[in-house]
Design goal:
Number of domains: 2
Order of helices and strands: EEEEEEEEEHEHEHHHEEEEHEEEEEEEHH
Number of strands: 22
Distance between the termini: 56 Å
CATH class of the largest domain: Alpha Beta
Strand content: 25-35%
């Protein structure tokens, strides 16, 4: 059975129980798609992972895009089969979803297309309803153009990281300098279009690169004052949640360290890095970030009756091939990190 939809335009909609709104059947590219009445101000794009044949009633027209055609009002059809159908709604106010949605979370690809392809193959087996990409997309000594092409094709909710900002503002770091001449105008247009943060599922989920309070360069969960990353104090993490609003789940990247932390009931997930498991930096102090293994990382999250369920994944791939790309780009320290998940001593 189709599960209750989350609020769209302020309405809680249960299509079979008839709460909030009735349904209309929508034909799109010769397939039956699930439709829903919305307030006149809302425009909606319908996507669905399953062909749907079902009973639907429409009392008035919905403001759908011109590529969709409403079936006749009060149309009824028999159910071919009854099953849960994940449906994503893109509306003017954000992304809404049918209950039970599973989200794949990726971050910090850094141009490593080999790692990205391995992660996406693993994600495909899981068949999530949505992918969220937390930024630092192409800057790295690997294959920036191919990784950009792949990420642009995902239809993922994507936010910009500090490296997207640095690329666009002329930053001179080695990873940005390597990526910049290898990007096409289409890549640049895509990068310029990305928001710094995203609120999903009626504000229940907040996505950012660094932290909600401190922007794309702030470490959300880590203290690096000793030169190595360790979990920061609860009060320090609590201050950085400010800016996420009423979110129950906050997704962050930037540190490349996979973690799940709960702060005052808010679940904070860093999926780790897809493409660069170790790096060093001199801000805010000289330090290294090390995942400890070369695997490509991502996370799966899903709501449950008792809270958010989080699955941190580590995916093997051809580490050696990626390391050779880094060496050919003149970055032996990154090659070492790709092979080992650590930085050279």
């Amino acid at each position: 059975m189709v599960e209750a939809f989350w609020p769209v335009g302020g309405l809680v909609l249960d299509p079979f129980a008839g709460l909030g709104s009735s349904l209309v059947a929508v034909e799109h590219l010769g397939r039956d798609w699930l439709g829903m009445e919305l307030e006149p101000a809302h425009m909606v794009t319908l996507t669905c992972r399953e062909t749907w044949h079902g009973t639907a009633r429409g009392r008035r027209k919905c403001p759908l895009s011109s590529s969709h055609r409403l079936a006749r009002s009060n149309r009824e059809a028999s159910l071919a089969r009854t099953r849960t159908v994940p449906v994503a709604w893109t509306v003017a106010t954000g992304l809404e979803y049918a209950g039970g949605m599973r989200i794949a979370v990726i971050a910090d690809v850094h141009g490593n297309s080999l790692a990205l392809e391995a992660v996406l193959r693993d994600i495909a087996h899981e068949n999530p309803d949505l992918i969220v990409n937390l930024g630092d997309l192409v800057s790295g000594p690997f294959d920036p153009a191919r990784s950009a092409d792949i990420q642009m094709s995902l239809s993922a909710v994507t936010v910009a990281g500090n490296h997207e900002r640095q690329l666009l503002t002329g930053g001179a770091g080695a990873s940005d300098a390597y990526a910049r001449p290898r990007l096409s105008e289409d890549h640049w247009k895509w990068l310029r279009s990305l928001p710094g943060t995203a609120r999903l599922l009626d504000g229940r989920v907040f996505a950012c690169h660094g932290s909600p309070a401190g922007g794309d360069l702030e470490y959300f969960l880590e203290d690096v004052s000793t030169g190595h990353a360790r979990l920061d104090r609860p009060d320090a993490i609590r201050r950085r949640v400010v800016g996420a609003g009423d979110a129950q789940l906050v997704l962050c990247g930037h540190t490349h360290i996979p973690r799940v932390v709960v702060s005052d009931g808010v679940v904070i997930v860093n999926p780790g890095s897809v493409g660069m498991p170790a790096y060093d930096d001199d801000r805010p102090v000289a330090h290294v970030m090390e995942a400890g293994c070369p695997h490509a990382r991502y996370a799966l999250v899903a709501p449950s009756s008792s809270g958010w369920r989080v699955d941190l994944r580590a995916v093997p791939y051809d580490f050696e091939a990626a390391a050779r790309q880094a060496e050919q780009a003149g970055r032996p320290e990154i090659a070492f990190g790709v092979r080992t998940g650590r930085m050279p001593c």
